Amino acid sequence: MSAVDRPSTxxxxxxxxxxxxxxxxxxxxxxxxxxxxxxxxxxxxxxxxVSRLLAEAVALTALIGTxxxxxxxxxxxxxxxxxxxxxxxxxxxxxxxxxxxRFDAEAVAAAVAAGRDRPEDLLGRGHLAMTVDQGAHMxxxxxxxxxxxxxxxxxxxxxxxxxxxxxxxxxxxxxxxLTRDPGHEPHRAWRAGGLFLQFLPESSERVGQRDLHPGxxxxxxxxxxxxxxxxxxxxxxxxxxxxxxLIDPAVSAETLLYRLFHERGVRVFEPRPLVERCRCSxxxxxxxxxxxxPAERVDMVENGRIGVTCEFCSTxxxxxxxxxxxxEA
Length: 329
Description:
Blueprint: E1 4-5, E2 15-21, E3 26-33, H1 35-42, H2 48-65, E4 73-80, E5 84-92, E6 96-103, H3 105-113, H4 119-123, E7 125-133, E8 141-148, H5 152-164, E9 168-179, E10 187-199, H6 229-238, H7 243-247, H8 253-261, E11 266-268, E12 272-273, E13 275-276, H9 282-290, H10 294-300, E14 301-302, E15 305-309, E16 316-319, H11 322-328
Parallel strand pairs: 1-11, 6-13
Antiparallel strand pairs: 2-3, 2-11, 2-12, 3-10, 4-5, 4-7, 5-6, 7-8, 9-10, 14-15, 15-16
C-alpha cells in the first residue's frame, strides 16, 4: 500500500473524509467545515463563546452521523446546568446539518470575563444524548452519557466506551479566521474541524477487551489494564494534531492524514459532502400551527398576525389567523 491511498477527488471544505489505517486496526474520519459552519452560525447572533461551542457540537455530529448507515436523522443534544443550557444539532442523512443553542447571556458574559469559557465551563453538569431516528415506522435508538464537567471530546470518549464498548478518540477545533475571497475585502469567518478514531480489530485476540474498564474487581485485586500497542500508537499519533491543522484551509485532510500515518499507510475513501440546510418550511410550520386548538391560536396572535421564527435557521413565517378558521369551517 502506498503511504496514502486516495480517491481522485480531494475532500476539500464542508466534507467528511473516511479513512482506515489497516496496520493499526483503526478506522476514522476527518471533517472540515468552512462556508457551511460560517453560514450556520451567521444565522444566529450568538456570543463568540457560544458559537465556538456550537461549532464543536456540529463537527462532532458530522463525524458520528456520517459513520452510520441509515436513512433518517442523527440528533446530538445536551441539557445541562451551565451558562449554555442546551445544544441541539440535527444531521439529516445523507448530508444536511442544522443547529441551535439556548443560553443565559449574562451568565455567558460573566464566564467569559472570568476566563471560564472552556467548553466544560459553559456546559456544566447534565447529560449528552445521541439519538438515531429512522422515521415513524422504526424504533428510535438513544444513548446518553453524563456531562460532569467534561468537554464534548471527553463526553464522546465516554459515550462510545459506555454504550458501544469501542475505544474511541476525538479531536475538535474551532476558530474564527481571516478569509480573503477573490474580489472581496478580507473578512472573518468561522471554521471547524475534527478527527475521529476508533479501534476496530478484526482478530479475536485483538478485540479490544484490554482497553475496557475491568469493572467491579474484588477489593485488593489489580485493576491495571494494558491497552493494545496498535491503539496506543494510534492515540499517540492523534495526540500530535494541532488545532490549526484541523481548521487551516491550506492543510487538506489528506495532508493531515499523510503526516500522521504515512509510516503505517493510510487508505482514504470517497469524501462525504455536507451542507447547511434546515428542515423547516412554510407548509410544515402552518401544519404545526393548525394542530393547536382555536383558543391556543388566539394566544399566539400579536398585532393581528401569527408569527413563528425557526429556532434553527431564524427564518420568520407570518400567517393570517383567518386562514386557520377557514380550514375548520
